[in-house]
Specification:
heterodimer; A: 345 residues; 3-stranded antiparallel beta sheet; 41% helix; rod-shaped; B: 823 residues; alpha+beta; 6-stranded mixed beta sheet; elongated; binds zinc ion
Chain lengths: 345, 823
């Protein structure tokens, strides 16, 4: 009867596998109870197998008994787990324990200032066209701020720039344009630079003016840079910044350091050209002053005006941000009100 | 500058484009048109009426009862609110049932017991002007019943031009009209129907004739002075067409003589002034510097105290006008005036500018003189004015005109090369095509070429702004039309100028801080006084207000004001940062010239620096239903400071346990309290972080503690390139160790000692618990440490780890009097 222990062990292994499968497949309490009765019940298959241990050779009985107990243990554990899982599933079906619509756990949302965003976008677009960013002093000399740029303080044109004087010949720069001269003094063409930074004019703080304001100056100088190149560079910028459907127009203007000079308008983003209060009913928003670099500026910095030509432009990112977001009062930009800043975060 | 479209149409016959189209064309070709206003709209029902009888209203002193003839069969009774109504004079009349431009309809009604059928009205009621002082008097000789719009030449469109400072020639109707001339259409001036051809009495400094003497005593301030005398004028209201023109551009008719000077100014840009000749002493006028303290009552009724920098017109005894700015009250033309002297002078732009500035007067005349007038057209302008006066005020002009000063030589010719046009504009135009653009606006092509090549052009007297080739290149571009240039993208060009590293730094800072929930603020450099307590801060000598009298010398104090603003709005959770420039003055060595160039002279006294400022307070996280969030505390600030220091500049953060060094002092200032950190790079303090002193910010009782950080951005250098460290495939072994140490032992010292002691097997050490209380002896605290060991080349054994751990225990016991807790 040497085969008895082996065949019983085989039978135990078989019924363990079958039992676990039956328990696992039981989809409800009834089926699970059926499985329990069939495998662990008093007349179940395991009891039956255990009853057969007495027929095994005595020296193998303990080992087979141990194995039978292990199978019983495994089936009991599986039965318990399946029962818990089924109960939980039943409970879920009646009323879910988690309301998934409750708000998630948040962290504070930070964000850059809307004017910074405009500056960064402008710099990125011109950066793709080869422009690099440079930085200049905000306290500047009248030579760089006016003289080098062909601005005579006796000319009515200087009235446009009411100046903060700090000292004889030293001022808070009235525009970021002085860097045109500083850059050209320091390097030979080709020059393509952007100068983002603060500029200062004696304007009272009101909804559309501030005594200091962000400005971005651009300058491109090389051999063969002409008005056509200037115009298409600006148009490329307008299409990328304001959208491909935005139209632009160039109007004659005057700046002492550019000639020919132009103001650039784009179709109003609020009314798309039909006229609204943002564009003063014109359908157009002026976004920059610009033009071909005046030969007098090249002479001041030691460039040969017969050899080099170029263009320059200046933009006010704060005003552009105001139009873009419909911000009615410039002072809101500088209050540091978190409820305001969060709107653009 | 306002322009009447009807007036332009008179000057350029055949200009039949709509006013909108004209405005658009002018904007694109010359200067921006900012205003567009229909003048005299809705006046169709208003007619001219003659007052037949006038008497005081029996029940109201300030009202008049009028009987008017408005062209109908029956006279009409009208009650009128004006104090002075002249019997026999003409006024605009609004009949019953008509509607005024303001929108209300006139009805027959009883006023203080008297019936009124319609009304007589003022300029302001007709929206023709600003004068509300009385009923608008119309010139004599009009037929009652004539529609007012026909009389005044209305409706008209008033265009508001925003002129560029170089184009003063556009400040008159002829100037604007020239921009529309072309294709054989020329200018046609109105024929006044009177003629004056002067015989000129000339002189350099002095000229005499027509019974007057003119003398230029300040030739540096006045290059020419022309005068004409008209005797026996009848001063009165201007004819309706002239009044209509002035009203259309927003002017105010005064009397026919004054209106004539204004009309010619608006037509051809020459400022003119009319004196009542009988008021001049000595029958002379001279141009001279005012004497110190000299007084003059100007036409606006103000008495002005003058000085030698001001220029005046004087008669024998006194100043009678501010040269080029405004006439004097004593010599103005009034209803009693019979003989007039018309002045047509050329004053120096700078001296007019000075006088206008010191007196605070900016007038139509000073605007034009400051920007330069056409000296070659003065005879023509004076002639136009005399002829207009003769036509509308009668009298007789003296055949002699007086003329002192130099004969104008005209403007210099300017050459333009087609090659230069191509180089600057990118347009392939030949000399003839260029001429085709320049000639219609008055440039005269001379024969032949200039020395340097290029075609030579005569510059018309009104274009004093054109002196260089580039000025003509601009005219070519403008006339070609900026928007007619081809749209041809050109090849990419590189820049040789390296980018300033500060921009990338600022970007990294913004990314890091916005990722940590911070909002970027922007402020404008000005601060009320130096709340930084820094004596070296930069004062603004001419500030707009006391709030803006200094430049900021630190960022945090500025952000603390923003924090207060948020407190005032009831906001408790505030996390702001700003990247900006701060300013200081620099104490100079007595004779340090710093090697700065002349162009930089003065800047060596100032220092600018890029800084990061940061302020935070309130909850650590937004409120959540599942748990309450604690307020931000010292450890949040420390971790932020560490992130900024190590993430941006390879720096470390040290507690300021032994006080603050001088740089930390400069960065922190008065706001920095005792709980503070230094941010250190290469042994140098580059930033500070800490609790904000209660005195440094005005906080409401509900506010949480505020924390701040200030960092010198020049210290934010790029971090080194990270080098790869090989990863061990063998498992780690973890051990914990709890020790007690005296309170005086800082955590950081213990950590340093552990790291020093650990061999290459110690992979990480971390503080997991700090405990002070009954479980440990008095004067001590417990620190719980977690260690992780790992070897590159094998699995660690218990013996390896035990050796490490006993080395730690030995060192800690010896150095810090540590006791190992065994529990
Ligand atoms: Zn619009």
């Amino acid at each position: 009867m040497t085969g008895t222990a082996a065949s019983l062990l085989e039978r135990l292994a078989q019924l363990e596998g079958d039992g676990l499968a039956a328990i696992g497949n039981a989809g409800n309490g009834e089926a699970l109870e059926d499985a329990r009765v069939a495998y662990l019940g008093r007349n179940g298959v395991l009891a039956d197998a255990m009853g057969a241990i007495g027929t095994v050779e005595p020296e193998r009985r303990p080992a087979v008994g141990q194995r039978a107990n292990a199978v019983k243990q495994a089936l009991s554990v599986a039965l318990e787990a399946a029962s818990t899982a089924l109960a939980a599933a039943d409970a879920d079906a009646d009323h879910p324990t988690i309301d998934l619509t409750l708000p998630g756990r948040r962290t504070w949302r930070g964000g850059v200032h809307p004017v910074t965003r405009v500056i960064d976008e402008i710099c990125e677009i011109f950066g793709d066209m080869g422009f690099t960013r440079v930085q200049g002093p905000e306290i500047e000399t009248t030579w760089y701020n006016f003289t080098a740029l062909n601005i005579s303080l006796d000319h009515p044109a200087a009235d446009m720039m009411d100046t903060f004087y700090l000292d004889d010949g030293v001022i808070l720069r009235t525009h970021t344009s002085p860097m045109q001269a500083r850059v050209m003094e320091a390097s030979e063409p080709p020059v393509r630079v952007l100068v983002p930074g603060l500029a200062y004019r004696r304007d009272s703080f009101d909804p559309s003016h501030a005594p200091a304001f962000e400005q971005i100056e651009g300058l491109a100088v090389d051999e063969g840079v002409d008005f056509v190149e200037f115009r298409s560079a600006i148009q490329t910028f307008v299409r990328r910044f304001f959208g491909v459907d935005t139209k632009s127009r160039f109007r004659p203007s005057f700046y002492p350091f550019t000639e020919p000079s132009a103001e650039v308008d784009v179709t109003c983003s609020v009314c798309h050209g039909s006229g609204c209060s943002t564009c003063k009913r014109t359908g157009w928003i002026t976004i920059m002053g610009s033009g071909m670099v005046d030969p007098a500026v090249f002479e001041a910095v030691g460039y040969d005006p017969e050899r080099y030509t170029g263009y320059a432009f200046g933009m006010g990112p704060a005003r552009i941000a105001m139009v873009r977001h419909g911000i009615p009062d410039m002072r809101l930009l500088y209050e540091g009100d978190t409820a305001f800043l969060e709107q653009f975060a | 500058m306002n322009v009447s479209v009807n007036w332009l149409r008179e000057l350029v016959p055949g200009l039949d484009a709509s006013p909108e189209e004209l405005a658009e064309r002018f904007s694109m070709a010359a200067a921006a048109v900012e205003g567009f206003e229909v003048v005299g709209a809705g006046l169709d029902e208003i007619v001219v009426a003659r007052v037949l009888e006038v008497e005081r209203h029996p029940n109201a002193d300030r009202l008049s009862l009028c009987v008017v003839d408005a062209g109908g069969e029956e006279p009409i009774d009208v009650v009128c609110g004006a104090p002075v109504i002249v019997q026999g004079a003409l006024y605009p009349y609004v009949p019953v049932g008509a509607t005024l431009p303001a929108g209300f309809t006139i009805e027959a009604r009883k006023i203080r017991g008297e019936m009124s059928h319609g009304m007589l009205c003022s300029e302001i009621e007709l929206k023709l002007g600003r004068d509300k002082s009385g009923i608008m008097r119309l010139p004599d000789g009009l037929e009652p019943g004539t529609p007012l719009v026909d009389v005044l030449g209305l409706p008209d469109v008033r265009l508001g031009l925003d002129l560029n400072p170089n184009r003063v020639d556009l400040a008159c109707h002829k100037g604007v009209a020239r921009e529309f001339v072309g294709d054989g259409v020329g200018l046609t001036e109105r024929d006044f129907g009177a003629t004056w051809r002067a015989e000129w009495a000339d002189g350099d400094a002095e000229a005499a004739g027509a019974g007057v003497t003119v003398r230029i005593e300040a030739p540096d301030r006045c290059s020419r002075y022309l005068g004409a005398v008209v005797r026996g004028v009848e001063v009165g209201p201007s004819p309706a067409w002239l009044a209509g023109r002035l009203l259309a551009v927003g002017g105010r008719p005064i009397n026919n003589v004054v209106d004539a000077t204004n009309y010619v100014l608006l037509e051809c840009n020459q400022p003119l002034h009319a004196f009542d000749l009988s008021t001049l002493t000595g029958a002379e006028v001279k141009v001279r510097a005012a004497s110190a303290g000299e007084e003059l009552e100007t036409l606006d009724g103000e008495t002005r105290k003058l000085g030698p920098a001001d220029t005046v017109i004087a008669d024998r005894d006194r100043a009678i006008a501010l040269a080029g700015v405004m006439g004097g009250a004593d010599t103005e033309v009034t209803g009693e005036t019979v003989d007039v002297l018309i002045e047509c002078a050329a004053f120096d732009p700078l001296s007019v500018r000075k006088t206008a500035r010191t007196t605070g007067l900016s007038t139509d005349a000073s605007y034009r003189f400051e920007r330069g007038i056409d000296e070659t057209a003065q005879e023509e302008a004076l002639t136009r004015c005399v002829e207009l006066i003769l036509a509308i005020a009668g009298g007789e002009a003296d055949p002699v005109g007086v003329r002192a000063g130099a004969t104008p030589i005209g403007l210099e010719d300017v050459a333009v090369r087609a090659t230069r046009v191509r180089q600057v504009l990118g347009l392939d135009l030949d000399d003839d095509e260029i001429a085709g653009l320049l000639e219609p606006i008055g440039f005269i092509r001379r024969g032949g070429t200039a020395g340097g090549g290029g075609a030579l052009y005569g510059v018309p007297g009104w274009r004093g702004d054109v002196t260089r080739e580039i000025d003509l290149v601009e005219e070519v571009a403008r006339r070609f039309g900026y928007d007619n240039f081809p749209d041809e993208p050109r090849r990419f060009r590189p820049s040789v100028v390296p980018e300033h590293p500060g921009f990338k730094r600022a970007e990294r800072i913004r990314r890091l801080l916005t990722g940590r929930g911070m909002l970027e603020a922007r402020s404008l450099s000005f601060v009320p006084a130096d709340h930084h307590g820094n004596v070296a801060s930069v004062a603004v000598p001419n500030p707009l207000s006391a709030e803006e009298s200094y430049l900021r010398s630190a960022m945090v104090p500025v952000l603390l004001r923003r924090l207060e603003h948020n407190y005032s709005r009831g906001r408790r959770d505030v996390r702001l940062f700003e990247v900006g420039t701060v300013f200081d003055t620099v104490a100079l060595e007595p004779n340090a010239n710093g090697g700065t160039s002349q162009r930089d002279a003065g800047l060596e006294r100032y220092h600018e620096e890029s800084r990061l400022g940061l302020v935070l307070t309130g909850s650590r996280e937004p409120a959540h239903w599942d748990e309450t969030s604690a307020d931000l505390d010292l450890w949040d600030l420390k971790s932020l400071a560490e992130d900024v220091a190590s993430g941006l500049c390879d720096g470390v953060v040290e507690a300021c346990l032994t006080g603050v060094d001088s740089r930390a002092d400069a960065l922190g200032g008065a706001w920095l309290g005792t709980e503070s950190y230094r941010m250190v790079v290469d042994g140098q303090t580059v930033g500070v972080a800490g609790a904000v002193n209660a005195g440094a910010v005005d906080s409401p009782p509900w506010a949480a503690r505020a924390w701040a950080l200030e960092l010198d951005l020049a210290a934010v250098t790029s971090r080194g390139v990270a080098e790869y460290v090989s990863l061990s495939p063998y498992p780690a072994v973890r051990r914990d160790l709890a020790i007690t140490v005296p309170f005086s032992v800082p955590f950081a010292d213990v950590e340093d000692a552990l790291r020093e002691t650990g061999s290459g097997l110690l992979e990480a050490v971390r503080l997991f618990d700090v405990y002070e209380g009954t479980e440990v002896e008095d004067g001590r605290r417990s620190l719980g440490w977690a260690f992780r060991f790992r070897a590159d080349d094998r699995t660690l054994t218990d013996e390896d780890v035990e050796a490490e751990m006993s080395a730690f225990s030995a060192v800690l016991e010896k150095r810090f009097d540590a006791r190992i807790r065994t529990s």
